[in-house]
Amino acid sequence: MFRRSTTDRAGFGVLTYFYGLVTFVGLLVTLGTGFLLVRGPFFGGRLLEPTPLMVALAGFVVGIVVLAWGASRVAGVGSRI
């Protein structure tokens, strides 16, 4: 059975890059949907219709969750020692 090195606590490997990519995707989703949500009231555009507004809000929440999950995995928070 393969044992992980005890000196590599950060775990910089393929999974770290994968979680970094997940974090980046979460950041992009959060920024994109956040812009759609604030575009109307704060930038002089019109407000979205109710259905697209709820979809953008759901996308924003999903983006925050994906961003937090990926960032915590990259940082190694909650991993076993």
What is the element layout, followed by pairings?
Elements: H1 14-43, H2 50-75
Helix pairs in contact: 1-2
Description of the molecule:
The radius of gyration is 18 Å and the shape is elongated. The chain has a domain at 22-75. The protein has two helices and no strands. The chain has helices at 14-43, 50-75. Helix 1 packs antiparallel against helix 2 (50-75). With 81 residues, the chain is mainly α.
Number of helices: 2
Tell me the radius of gyration.
18 Å
- N-to-C span: 18 Å
Arithmetic mean of pLDDT: 83
How do you describe this structure in short?
Keywords: Membrane, Transmembrane, Transmembrane helix. The protein is mostly helical and 81 residues long.
